[in-house]
């Protein structure tokens, strides 16, 4: 019976081109599973791949089904996969609402074999990635979230969603996982300030979903004062509603980076500058501007420039050496961060943060290309049903 069923998916066939195709419903082996998709977040990565931004040709080659911020319900699962895929322990079953880590390390390259386990998944040289480099031409085809169903291959880390967490919040797990990575303990130097901590002053650059998640994470970690720097008024208005930012700075009202630096410093203890800057804007010039906000001995986290958006200019003396900066680049997050992300979102909900408001637009599979070209939303989602 299953073989006669057809599954609809939005397939990227070339740069800026997408069409709806139908695929056979897959057979489920003992170590695999099929998830019925509820919704899939539209990530900036999806938009960059669709637009052909470098190095998307090294990451994704069409035809592919985009989508890695996945939320669905287990439709079928093999006996072995019930425990093997259960990242939190226990057993998975049909009907469980789940999300999963999109990357699958090869386990054989140098990085997988010799780096600490919490880094291997992000630095694997030959990792497979849902919605990124798994071809829709290769059976069973369904390797991305822009589809009615998604096939889970052996080795995927699957996480159950808490029963009382709304879909519009659960779909944000990947976003919060990215900001969990900037916690204390991500570096092997426990005396340094390498993550959010109680009493910190934090500046978040970028008013998109990652910036909002970074601010919420800092707030939950006990940050003393949190700044948000952005330029999209509707997003800044939503940031006000979240209730976690102490100071919101619109770059349209304060366009001079030097003026912003003096303004932020004047609101920090000793006028020293912030303890941590998290760059989430994905704009190259945000890097030197963010370094200008940082106190001496502070920490700069680069999250936003996930794709090559161009070059910028920094002063190695003024921005780095003189300040004794701790500079951390983060291209991805390890699978272990998903469990912490779910806990963080539960904490935020209990404390009254309206996380569901981050999802502002919903699109069908037929509207996927339109959604990828749009800048109207804070977080857009593809809803296949």
Could you characterize what this model shows?
The protein is built from 14 helices and 17 strands. By secondary structure, it is α/β, with parallel strands linked by helices. The protein folds into two domains: 2-176 and 334-382, Alpha-Beta Complex (Quinone Oxidoreductase, Chain A, domain 1); 182-329, Rossmann fold (3-Layer(aba) Sandwich), CATH 3.40.50.720. The strands form four sheets. Strands 3, 4, 5, 8, 9, 16 and 17 form a seven-stranded mixed β-sheet that branches. Strands 12-11-10-13-14-15 form a six-stranded parallel β-sheet, sandwiched between helices. A two-stranded antiparallel sheet has the order 1-2. A hairpin with a 2-residue loop joins strand 1 (6-14) and strand 2. Mean pLDDT is 92; it is low at 183-193.
Oligomer: single chain
Q: Mind telling me the CATH class of the largest domain?
A: Alpha Beta
Instruction: Provide the helix percentage.
Output: 25-40%
> What distance lies between the first and last C-alpha atoms, to the nearest angstrom?
21 Å
Radius of gyration: 21 Å
For CATH, the homologous superfamily of the largest domain is named as: Medium-chain alcohol dehydrogenases, catalytic domain
Q: Biggest sheet, open or closed, and with what strands and sense?
A: 7 strands, mixed
Contiguous helical run count: 14
As residue ranges, the low-confidence spans are: 183-193
SS-derived structural category = alpha/beta
Work out the number of β strands. Answer: 17
Content of β-strand = 15-25%
Report the CATH architecture of the largest domain.
Alpha-Beta Complex
Global outline: globular
**Average pLDDT figure:** 92
CATH topology of the largest domain: Quinone Oxidoreductase, Chain A, domain 1
Tell me the domain tally. 2
């Amino acid at each position: 019976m299953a073989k006669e069923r057809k599954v609809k998916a939005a397939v990227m066939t070339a740069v800026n081109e997408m069409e709806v195709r139908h695929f056979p419903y897959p057979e489920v082996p003992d170590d695999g599973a099929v998830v019925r998709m509820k919704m899939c977040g539209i990530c900036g990565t999806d938009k960059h791949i669709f637009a052909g931004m470098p190095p998307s040709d090294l990451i994704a080659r069409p035809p592919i089904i985009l989508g890695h911020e996945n939320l669905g319900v287990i439709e079928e699962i093999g006996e072995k996969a019930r425990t093997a895929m259960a990242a939190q322990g226990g057993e998975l079953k049909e009907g469980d609402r789940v999300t999963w880590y999109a990357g699958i390390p090869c386990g054989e390259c140098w990085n997988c074999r010799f780096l600490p386990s919490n880094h291997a998944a992000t630095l694997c040289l030959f990792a497979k990635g849902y919605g990124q480099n798994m071809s829709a031409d290769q059976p069973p085809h369904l390797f991305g979230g822009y589809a009615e169903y998604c096939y889970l291959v052996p080795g995927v880390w699957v996480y159950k969603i808490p029963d009382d967490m709304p879909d519009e919040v659960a779909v944000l797990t990947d976003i919060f996982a990215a900001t969990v990575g900037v916690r204390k303990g991500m570096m092997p130097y426990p005396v340094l300030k390498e993550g959010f901590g109680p009493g910190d002053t934090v500046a978040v650059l970028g008013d998109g979903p990652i910036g909002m998640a970074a601010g919420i994470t800092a707030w939950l970690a006990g940050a003393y004062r949190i700044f948000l720097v952005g330029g999209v008024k509707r997003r800044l208005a939503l940031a006000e509603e979240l209730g976690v930012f102490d100071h919101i700075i619109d770059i349209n009202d304060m366009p001079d980076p030097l003026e912003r630096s003096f303004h932020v410093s004047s609101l920090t203890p000793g006028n020293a500058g912030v303890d941590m800057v998290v760059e989430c804007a994905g704009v190259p010039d945000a890097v030197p501007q963010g370094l200008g906000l940082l106190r001496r001995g502070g920490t700069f986290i680069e999250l936003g420039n996930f794709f090559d958006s161009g070059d910028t200019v920094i002063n190695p003396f003024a921005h780095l050496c003189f300040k004794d900066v701790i500079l951390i680049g983060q291209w991805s997050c390890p699978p272990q961060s998903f469990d912490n992300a779910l806990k963080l979102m539960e904490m935020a909900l209990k404390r009254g943060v309206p996380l569901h408001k981050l999802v502002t637009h919903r699109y069908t599979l037929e509207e996927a290309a339109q959604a990828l070209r749009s800048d109207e939303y804070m977080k857009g989602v593809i809803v296949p049903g």
